[in-house]
Design goal:
Structural class: alpha/beta
Number of helices: 9
Radius of gyration: 19 Å
Order of helices and strands: HEEHEHHHEHEEHHEH
Length: 312
Amino acid sequence: MTWFLLIVLVLGPVLLAEALLARYEVLAYSAGWRAPTTELPEGVPYARGADPDSPPDAYLVYLDGIGKRRVRDTRDGGQLVKAVIAGAPELRVLGQVQPYSPLADPLADRPVWARLRRRIGLLLFLHNVMQIFVAADHRYRPLYNRAVGSQIATQLRLAGYEADSGIPVVLLSYSGGAQVATGAVEELHTQLRCPLLLITLGGFHNGANDLTHAEHVHRLTSASDRIERIGTWIFPQRWRLLRGSGWNRARRAGKITVHRLDPATHLGTRSYISPTPQPPDGRSYLDRTTDTVIALIRAYHNATVATDDPSP
């Protein structure tokens, strides 16, 4: 009991402070107090992969989970993004978007956080967790969706995307990145009028966002992923009973396809992006996830090309 009280006394004020900071950022954006950051650090390109001088088959935006802290890092050291680029050179890939910052301000690069990170690394984790719940809160969700949707649209334009070009945009999201991806759909449709394909990987989201303008949603999941399962329990909009939620409307419209990646877990040596080999074919979890993502994108591209082909 003593340890429990100590944890509550220590974490309680921290959680309260994080909640207030998370709300401040989205309010600062909506009030125009601060402009979102658009420039990237020196040496960081706006996109990698396909030749920027010719139209790619698609633009892929990777929205990482709560481990995302700066432009360069991801929870897996960038392995998934690198694997997708290597396996699908026809794609232009953006991995720099800050899904947990409406102001596109990398958390770990802020001076005060850089000092705290060396002493209390847990704060970085808690900050991004709180941002997910702010993004899911009905009071702030429209503002958050517009902020991060605009950030993604800006980064796509800087990477060469032209509105009304018809080139698909793929939002590949991990864990809490799914809350951001589903929320960005409307803003991206408004600004770029682009075909949108969503791929969620262990997606943790509340199911409230409107997916009307998404072409399709591929849900990559596993029976061993307890964290994703918690999301389906704690958010009522994910329950089939609430038929009017964005997620359930998309489900009834046939827009959601589930792909099982058993026995992958959300984290650890058996996570979706682990380089650990798995039976029976000897591919790693990372390889299987990468192959699945690329296959889905290519299938969508081929189907789109076939639909647009006027020849008999």
